[in-house]
Every structure is written in structure tokens, then in C-alpha cells.
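Q: What does the assembled structure look like for these inputs?
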Amino acid sequence: MKRLSGFAIFAAVCLLLPVIFPDNYYVTVVGLTIFVNVTLAVSLNLLMGYAGQISLGHAAFFGLGAYSSAILTIKYGLNPWLAMIFGAALVLCLSYVLSRPILRLKGHYLAMATLGLGIIVHIFFVQADELTGGPDGISGLPTLSLFGVPIDSDIKWYFVLCSYMLLSVLFSLNIADSRAGRALSAVHGSEIAAQMMGIDTAKVKSYIFVFSALMATIAGSLFAHQQDFVSPESFSFFFSIELVTMVVLGGLGSTFGAVMGAFILSILPEVLIVFEDFEVLIFGLILMVIMIFLPEGLFVSLKNRAAIMLSKRESGS
Amino acid sequence: MRFLKNIVTLLAAFSLVLLSGTGMVQAKDTLKIGSFLAVTGPASFLGDPELKTLQMYIEEINAKGGINGHKIEFVHYDTKGKAKEAKNFVNRLIKKDKVDVIIGGTTSGNSLAVIDIVEKAKVPFISLAGSIKIVEPVKKWVFKTPHTDKMAAEKIFADMKKRGIKKAALITGNGGFDKSGRAQCLALAPKYGIEIVADEKYGNADTDMTTQLTKIRATDAQAIINFGFGKAPAIVAKNIKQLGIKLPVYESHGVASKKFIELAGDAANGIRLPAAALIVADQLSDKDPQKKVLLAYKKKYEAKYGPVSTFGGHAYDALFITVEAVKRAGTIDRAKIRDEIEKTHGFVGTGGIFNMSPTDHLGLNLDAFKMIEIQNGNWKLLY
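A:
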């Protein structure tokens, strides 16, 4: 149980916040954006942090989920949950088919291929106006309901997105501590060594790629319903980069690192807005300072330092 | 002890200032106007004059004692032209800043993205973007002041009909404005008996459109229509000249800024476009009711910031439609302001004369657009 005690505290804080501050703007409005970003960062961390495979096209899967939900519910009148499952199935097939050839590549070439994927999907969203509504996007998605309860207020969305986020964090933590997770770490360390240990590296990599894509897709579907609007620029190449920044900022390979990175990158712009024109400047400065002084990422560095301090105190006493 | 005394005096003085200050402002509730504009980013040439206009006039209104004693508090966020940011900021304006009226949404994408939020929250929203989709079908809380792409297309086709042009070639970019304009052109052409014989497209970042124009040259088109804004239309104009195409060229209101003439140079001459009267204000006849308003706005804006553009004018219209509505409503109750905005009648703005109704949340007719030709590097009012 000790293994998941950190998670239990995290979950309790997340679920209690709206009970204590039901009308706080930062909790019930900004909170929703944060949960979506945290989910995406956690899913990307599976691929980047655990398996060591870079992806600059993660926003594409997020967007495919959002657009499948929007198109299938509005144009074809499908039940929102069914649309979500269709979207997930589509991405499952797509990401599986793509994973094998793409993940054969390494380093810069892998980055290039995923970048290409992200840009192609984005161009599709912009250009296929008959289907996607072009640059103006699509609005007017039906309200999602869960067990007959329509999810139509910020606070309800808070609990839905929070639950999905917690599930993905739990999933990610469990993967890390399982056989599959150790296989991933082995691939991250050295693919040849992993193969020598009897790990089917191609299979492991493609599975994690598909899982990561699926998590992002469902987040996309929920995002589309919550926003009640989808447009291509929410899923652009820049958003992919933002996601990578979140993962790196928090600390590669740590689930809570991804959580922390996503939290900081989502909340900072909201807080810094009081500085108006200097907002972007200060934002950049904070990122720079963190990466210079805590190069392993905020969460990982702080955790390591805390551990060193604790052990010093113990040996001292 | 002396230190303490100092502090007490300071506090007393401070509270006195505070009290007298609040005493003056609190005479009546302040009207909170929220705005979200694309002040930076690719659409900044639209958002920047909009923000300047709003700030300048709100300052003036407050200096004169507010609207019926209601001072205006202005809250502004920069969306950088991104729809997601627009959504976040409108949420913030409604849920955190609790504004009474929202003016903004520089681009159609930004405006369309927030419609459902303002509808749900029941806050009057005046959009500054072009697309007809914003007010058609009519949404209870959503209004807009700029002319629509549909009006631009109609104005162009009406002019073509006058000149006896039956076949036209269309060339458009891949932006939201371009695509919406293209759709309107294709839909409206048959109504004016005009056949679209070519429908070419380019990327807004392209630097050469000769391929598309060569294709157009091969058709029997009698005129070329280009819907777009930014630098692409200037390149189209230049390429047309380079290829020696002698057909009449129509641009949209998206190029109604001096920047276009600067970029296109000689090639701009002879191009016709529908645009708001602001850019030809001094050429209007003295009987035109708009002339006074236009010249006053132009003078005030140019004295402070430099050359005017029609885009800032849209913000002027939105602000003063709101001001008039608050005056008539006599309160800052959101629902009453909304009702009064809808009753706007005979309001002379920079974009035209607004007559809104429950079925028309724009309130401009085709006369609001002037047909303009570029002659010798300057705008010339045709009619």
C-alpha cells in the first residue's frame, strides 16, 4: 500500500478542492484545463519518459479524439459515448499500423516522423472543411451524460475530468511498477541489451505507443464535449511541443513529474496575466531558471534533493 | 512611539484618500466591459486598432463622468488569435471578472468559439469579426458590427452585373476568412447570373501564385475575385500584373488598409473592392450622415496613434452601440442592456447605419459598403 500512498494523497487533494472552494475560478475553470493537460502529459510520459521514444505529434491523437467525437455526434447523430469508442477504435488501428514503421526510427528521425504525423493531421483538420469545418472548427456538441445525469456544469466536468486524470495517473504508476514497465525501462536503457534479455522490443514499444495514443484520444473526446467546440489550432504542432515541455519540465520518466510539469505550465499563464505585456517574458524566464538549476526536471530534482537531505539527517543522528 | 504615531497618521491619511476616492466612484455602479482581442499574433493588425479604439474612448467617457453616471471599468485579454485562448479568457471574463458586456473576438474563429459560453452565461456579446455564421442563425445574446463576407460577395457581384461581367474566376487562400468568403461567393454567384469558371486556392504563406493564375488565364473568365487578407492578396495582385492579365480584379474588404497598396505597389491600381466608408471619409458628400462621425473618429484616432483602419472602426461602433443601449436602459442590468442593443435603430457608426431587430443582430444593409477603386495608389470612392 505504501507504493500508492502518494497517489492517495494526490487524489484526495484533487477531489476535495472543489468541495472546499466550489466557486473558485482557479479550481472549477482553470482546473479543467489543467486536468486535460495533466492527462496528456502523463500519457506522453509513458512513451517519452518510460520507453525513451520521443514524440512531437502527440496533439494529433488528442485532436483525432476530439474531432471524431464532434463529427460523429453532430454530423451522424451518434451517441456521444459510442462516438468516443469509435474515435478510440480509429486511433487504436491508426496508431498500431503507424507504430511499427515509425518506432523503427531512432533519435532525430523518430522526432521527424512524429512531427510529420502531427502536421499532417493538423493540415487535414484545416483543409477537409466539408468534414471538419475548416479553420472555424465545429461547435454545438451534444451534452454528455453519465448514468442519466447530464454533465453540464463546471463542477460536474471537474469530477469527470478529474476521475479520468486520476485513472490515467494510476494506470501510469502501475505500468511503471509492472513487468511491462521494467521492460520499457530496459528498452530506454539499451534496446540491444533489452533484446538480449528476451524482450520483444518492437512489440513493447508499439504497445506503449498505442496505449499512450489511446489515453490522449479519450482525453480529446472529453475535451471536445467539455469545450463544446473544436478547432484545428487546439491541436497544432505547438501544442505537441507544449506537451513535451510539460513532461521535460516536471522530469522525464516520473508520472508525478509529468503531473507537476503540466500543472505548472497550465497555471502559470493564468497567474502571470497580471503582468500584461511582460507575461511571456516572465514565463520564459521561469522555464529557463528551472531548466538551468534543476536540469532533471522540477519534480525529479526536488525529490532527489529531499531524499539526500533525509538520508543525511538519518546518518547524522 | 514616534514610529507608531507616524504609522497611524499615514493610515489615517490613506483611508481618507481611499474614502474620498470611493465616495466619488461609488455614486453609481461601474459598468464592466470585458474584451478579448487578438492584439498580438497573425491577426494583430485587426486587434491592435480595436484595443486602442476601445481604450481611447472609454478613457474619454470616464473623463466626462461615465454613462449616466456609470463609470466604465475595462478588462482586457490578448487571445493572440487563438480560439482556445479566446475560450479561456471569455470564461475568465464571465466567471472571474463578472463583466456586464463583452466586446471582442477579433477573428471569426475566436468569436465562433465563445458563442455557446456567452449564450449559457447570458452576457451580451458584440463580436468584431466578419463571418456571417456569428449572427446567422440569430443567437439571443450575440451581436456584431463588422460587415459580413456575404455582403462583400454580394457587393462585388452587383458591381460585376453593372459592368456586364458574366463569368468570374475565384482565387482564395486557406485561412478562415478566405474559406468563408469563397463559400459565400460560390453560393451567391448564381443569384446574380454569374458563373464561377475557376476556383483556385493557395496557402496564405505562399510567395508565388502564378501557377493558379496561369490556370485562370486559360479559362474564359471576364474578371478575377480574390478573397483574403494579409500579404497574399498583394502577391496575387503583383502576379496578375506580371502575367499581363488584363482582366478586372476584385479584392475583398480584407485588404482595406494602406498596407495592401504599399505591398502591391503599382499592381494595386485598378483593383476594386467593397469597404467601409471610413477609408474614403473625406470623399463622401457633405449630406452623408456618416461623414461627421467618420471624420471625428479619424481625427481623434490619428492624433493619438497614426493612420486609421476600418477594423478599429468596428470597435468604435460596438462600444457606442453599448453606450447608447446602457443610456436607454438606464441600468446596467445585462438582460435590459441586451434588449436595448437589439432595439438599436438609426445608429450612425463608422461601418454604416445600424438598424438591429430580433431577426437581425448586425443591422447593416448593402449600402453600408462602398465600392472603391484603387487609383494612383489611393482609394477612390466609386459609389
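DSSP finds twelve helices and 14 strands in chain B.
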